[in-house]
What we know:
single chain; 1 helix
Amino acid sequence: MPGGLSRTDAMWAFCDAIDNITDSRNNCGYGDSVGAKANLLSKTSYEADINSSSQ
């Protein structure tokens, strides 16, 4: 978990990041079709196996 974020806030930040990749929005006036899809299936209590030294 990033410092200063609750589990709920971290989940929404992750969902927003995935939406930015899969939503295909632009402001150039041309279509932008992205074949990527995402689906948040569930929460987990498993944590990444990494420490503050990136090991």
